[in-house]
Amino acid sequence: MMSPFGRHRPPAPTDEERRSAEVDLERIRQGGIPLGAEERLKRVATASTPFFTSDLTAKEYALAQASGLRPVAQVMGSSVVQRGWIGPQGAYYVTGEIPGLSEPWNMARNRAFDRLRREAELADADGVIGIEMTVGSRDGNIELVVFGTAVRDSTLPPRPSGRVGTSTLSGQDVDKLRRIGADVCCVVGHTTVLSVQLGMNSSWVMNTSRMFSRGAQMNTEITEIAQGVYDARDRAMAEVRRQGSAAGANDVVISMLEHTIDHYEYEQGGYRYHYFHVTMNVLGTAIRLGAREPHPAPLSGPVMSINLGD
């Protein structure tokens, strides 16, 4: 059928396509992945020479092969979480963590990584390397996508079911860890959202920092915000260490430590008060040192190379 503007309208979905879409939506609601993705990965698991598009660089791919890791599939996970009602607005004003703002971040990350691990399991992989994560926050939604390369380990017995090792480290870094006898356990991460209420002195500085005013003449540190960043980091890192310990790791390599600071204000009794939300995102890889013999060979000492030119 032609539209008034001379363009063909897309055909309406068939009953079979509608039923397939409903099945996929229900699988997503249950924390799973679409049926088509599951069937594709099952075919990868049974293929003698699986073919796929890798996000590894040529050097990473070669080093992974040399370390006994055979890339088999690109895997991903995604989640979009709508932030729910978190209580009266006055709760924002006090200094302290706001669980209603932290939880959507952690829910989205956990669900995305669960789906990535599920894809790796379906591909009969032992681990996922080079995981990258992109995050976004828009109109109360937390949007999070992770993807990496699933690999099979030819040097160790298969991991127990459901124990896929995940890593944000590059192929080069994973090769170095294997050469010192370390084992990759899992990706660990946490988000903390902390509210910081300014005291009277800091509020006065901000209220009088306009041009030609007295506050504009001073360079003054807002100590409450600086302390809030420290507190948010400490809370997030404490949870990351707990996750690493629960996974049997004895070290964590941090790959992402990012924060944002959002400014809010309100008036009460004719006076303008200021408060800030500090969001701290931490992501890393939990590793176990001394877990195995170095493979394929112990890492040699550092070598300095100097190119003097022609």
Helix-and-strand structural type: alpha+beta
Q: Report the C-alpha radius of gyration, rounded.
A: 25 Å
Report how far the terminal alpha carbons are from each other. Answer: 70 Å
- For the biggest β-sheet, the strand order reads 1-4-3-5
CATH homologous superfamily grouping: Hypothetical protein apc22750. Chain B
Largest sheet: 4 strands, mixed
Detail the poorly predicted runs. 303-308
Helix content: 25-40%
CATH C-level name: Alpha Beta
Tally of extended strands?
A: 8
Output the CATH topology: Translation Initiation Factor IF3
H/E element string?
A: HHHEEHEEEHEHHEE
Number of helices: 7
Strand content: 25-35%
CATH architecture assignment: 2-Layer Sandwich
Quick overview of this protein structure:
By secondary structure, the chain is an alpha+beta fold.
Task: Describe the 3D structure.
With 310 residues, the protein is an alpha+beta fold. The protein has one domain (51-288): Hypothetical protein apc22750. Chain B (Translation Initiation Factor IF3, 2-Layer Sandwich), CATH 3.30.110.70. 33% of the residues lie in helices and 30% in strands. It contains 7 helices and 8 strands, in the order αααββαβββαβααββ. The chain has helices spanning 15-29, 35-46, 58-66, 99-122, 171-179, 200-207, 223-246; strands spanning 69-82, 96-97, 127-138, 141-153, 165-166, 183-197, 251-268, 271-288. The strands form 2 sheets. A 4-stranded mixed β-sheet has the order 1-4-3-5. A hairpin with a 2-residue loop joins strand 7 and strand 8. Helix 3 packs parallel to helix 5. The longest helix has 24 residues, at 99-122. The radius of gyration is 25 Å and the shape is flat. Residues 303-308 have low confidence and may be disordered.
